[in-house]
Structure formats: C-alpha cells, structure tokens
Amino acid sequence: MNTENTVPCLYCLAENAVDEKNCGHCGMPLALKHPENKSSRLRFFSKVFALIAVFCLVMVAYLPR
Helices then strands (H, E): number in the chain? Predict the structure, then answer.
C-alpha cells in the first residue's frame, strides 16, 4: 500500500520512506521522480487546470459576442 510517506522501490517493490536515497531492502537507488508520486501529479494537474481556466476567461472577455 502506497501512502504519502512511503514510495515503493522500482526493483524489489519494498516500501521506503520518501526521503531515502537508496532502498532499504535491495540497496538500489530510488527514483527521484517516482511514477507513483501522487503529489507531483496533483501539482502538475493544478497548474494545467489554472492555465486552462485563465485562458478560458481571457477568451470569454476577448471574443466578440
């Protein structure tokens, strides 16, 4: 189970703390940008959503009626 404070190793799938550099089980380096890192995906989604919302507001004000 992946929680906010752990990240699985890409090699052995052992759970590790987010701030660890190497896996505690197999010793392999942990990925800096893990594919299952939900917080980075949420930040990216929030930025894209905000840009699309601003673009839509500008187009509503700019386009002729």
Answer: 1, 2
